[in-house]
Specification:
four-stranded mixed β-sheet; 4 helices; 128 residues
């Protein structure tokens, strides 16, 4: 796919890249250069659903290295400023548990964390 050319719809210089197509973890994406008025922010994020703490630790470390930054509640920004949510399987079910006390305890614990700790979240959810 060639997305460069003399006529740039976003006002960039002739020959600049307007869009790129890429694959990440088997999923195809197209990213568009919208110019300086369209920057990265938390309105768009990628979510990584992790099977276990080893997965959470792996993705958290990889995405925060070389200029990335940890954030609250399992969120982080990579070195390009893209927001990611690194969350364990089962978290959504705990946060929306039919028992409002369990859900509230889990939510409070998650709010106090940066990188999510699955064992701690499960303990809090269970009331331990």
């Amino acid at each position: 796919m060639d997305f460069t050319g003399p006529a740039q719809p976003c006002g960039g210089p002739a020959g600049s890249v307007v869009a790129v197509e890429f694959t990440a973890n088997g999923q195809s994406f197209v990213a568009v250069n919208g110019g300086p008025e369209f920057t990265f922010d938390e309105a768009v994020s990628f979510q990584i659903l992790c099977a276990d703490q080893e997965d959470v630790d792996h993705y958290w470390a990889g995405l925060t290295e070389n200029g990335g930054a940890p954030g609250p509640c399992g969120w982080l920004k990579d070195r390009f400023g893209v927001s990611w949510q690194v969350i364990p399987e089962g978290l959504v079910e705990m946060l929306y548990d039919a028992d409002p006390e369990k859900a509230a305890r889990t939510t409070r614990a998650m709010y106090a964390m940066g990188k999510l700790d699955i064992a701690e979240l499960k303990k809090v959810h269970a009331g331990e």
